[in-house]
Amino acid sequence: MGTGIGIVQTKYGKLCGVRRQGHTVFRGIPYAKPPVGALRWKKPVPPESWNGVRDAKVFGATAMQRLQTPGSFYEKEFFSDEDFFPPMSEDCLFLNVWTPARAAGDKLPVAFWIHGGGFVGGYGTEPEFDGAAYCERGVILVSFNYRLGALGFLAHEWLSAESAKEGHGAHSGNYALYDQLAALNWVRENIAAFGGDPDKITIFGQSAGARSVQSLVSSPLTKGLIAGAILQSGGGYKLPISRDATLQSAEGLGARFAEACGADSLESLRALPVEAVMKASNELVESAAAKGQGFAFGPCIDGKFLITGSDDALESGLHADIPYMIGSAMNDFGVTRADLAAGKKNRLYQGCIEWSLLGESLGRKPSYVYYFMREPLGDDAGAFHSSELWYMFNTLSRSWRPKVWADYELAEKMTDYWCNFVKTGDPNGGGLPRWEPCAEKNGRSVRALREGM
C-alpha cells in the first residue's frame, strides 16, 4: 500500500516526512514553544509558524530525565539501544505522526499514545513504540514527549500566586498534563492534513501514561476531544498509584524543592540551570521511593485541570462518556508469585474491573478489561509491568528476548484488538475470539464485587 502524503500543510507551516513501506512518518514536530526561561513552569504556548518546508525526519529531544542504570532490568529491556534515544533537553515538546493515508481527506482514526515512566522518565520514541503495524491496519499513530519530574509537575505557592495575578485562578502544577492537552489540541487542529479524522481520536497510555489518560478523561478541559481511551497498568478505581495529590500537599513538596534548590523567589527558580533543577527533582523522587510514598511528582487536584480526583470523578459521573479498554499484566505491581500460585490476581487488575463496572453502572458506554498473561522468554520475570508493550505495538523484532511463533501470533491479535477499538470503540472483529464488555462478562455490581474480595 503506497501513500500519497509526503508533504503536509499544517496550521503552522509545511512539513516533509520520511516515506516508508505503506506509510509516512513525520518526526520532531513542535506542538508548543520551548518551555524554557520565562515559560518554565508555565502552561504550554502554541508554537511559532515557519516559512518554507520544515524537515520532519529526525525525532525531537526527549524531556530532561535521569537515565536508567546501565545493566538494570528496564535499561536492558527498553533503553539499551542508543539509536532510539535522542538528546535530552528542556526544549522537548515534540510529537510524531505515522500515517498510512493516501490523501488529506481520508479521515482515518487516530491513536494518541502517552508514554509511561513514572512521570520522571520515558519518551514517545522508545524502541517498543512504532506506528508501522497500526498503519498496516489503517490507523494513524501519534506519539509525543511531555515535561517530567519537577519541570512537569512542580506546584508552589509562588506559582499559584502568579497564576492568580494573571487571572487564571490560584493554582499550579500539572504542567505535564497541560502539555498532553496541548498535543491533543494540536492533533485535533492538524491531523486532517495527515489524512486523519479529528473527531476519531483514541487516547491510550501505559503506567504513568495510563494515569495520564485517567486524568485527561476526568478533566472538564477535554470535553468533546476524545472518542475512546485505553488504560494499561496504571488506571483503576481506588488504587494508591492513581490517587491524585491535593494542591496543598503538592505545594508543600514544591516548598521543599525550592529549599533544596536554595531559591528564595520564583525568579531565582526560573533562573536556575536545568541541571540544578534536575538534581533537586531526582533527590525528592529518590526520597519518596525510599519511604514507599510512590510518585513524588504527579497530577494534583489543582481546581482547574482536575477539579476533583479521578475516583470522585468516576463516582460522580464526571468522567468522559466514551468506550474504554483497561487492564494489567499478570506479574504487575502489587502481586507476588505466592499470590499467583494461590490464584490471586494483582490489586491493579481488581481496580480495573471495579472502575469499569462502576462506569457502566452509571449507564456509560462499554468498558473492556484485559489481563496480560504471556511470560516473555529469556528470564523469569514473568508477565512483568510493561511487557505487553512489545506485543500491542507489534515490535517484537526489536526486543532482545527469544521468541516462538506464539509470541508473533499473540502480537498480531493484540494489535488487531487495539486497532479495532481505535476504529470502532469495540476491540472485536476480523475473526478474533469474542471479547465481552466488562459488565456483560461479570454480570454483577461493584458492591457485590467488592464484598467478594
Structural commentary:
This protein is α/β, with parallel strands linked by helices. The chain has one domain (7-243, 299-451): Rossmann fold (3-Layer(aba) Sandwich), CATH 3.40.50. The protein has 16 helices and 14 strands. Strand 1 and strand 2 form a beta hairpin. The protein is globular, with a radius of gyration of 21 Å. The N and C termini lie far apart (50 Å). Mean pLDDT is 92; it is low at 445-453.
What's the CATH first level?
A: Alpha Beta
Q: Give, in spatial order, the strands making up the sheet with the most strands.
A: 3-4-6-8-7-9-10-13-14
Bin the strand percentage: 15-25%
Structurally, the number of domains stands at 1
Radius of gyration: 21 Å
Sequence stretches where pLDDT stays below 50 over 5 or more residues? 445-453
Query: With helices defined by DSSP (H or I, 4 residues minimum), what is the helix count?
Result: 16
Order of helices and strands: EEEEEHEEHEHHHEHEEHHHEHEHHEHHHH
Shape: globular
Q: What's the structural blueprint in terms of helices and strands?
A:
Blueprint: E1 7-9, E2 14-16, E3 18-20, E4 23-30, E5 53-55, H1 73-78, E6 94-99, E7 108-114, H2 132-136, E8 140-144, H3 149-153, H4 157-165, H5 175-190, E9 196-206, H6 208-218, E10 228-232, E11 245-246, H7 247-261, H8 266-270, H9 274-290, E12 300-301, H10 310-315, E13 324-329, H11 337-341, H12 347-361, E14 367-372, H13 389-392, H14 405-424, H15 438-442, H16 446-451
Parallel strand pairs: 2-5, 7-8, 7-9, 9-10, 10-13, 11-12, 13-14
Antiparallel strand pairs: 1-2, 3-4, 4-6, 6-8
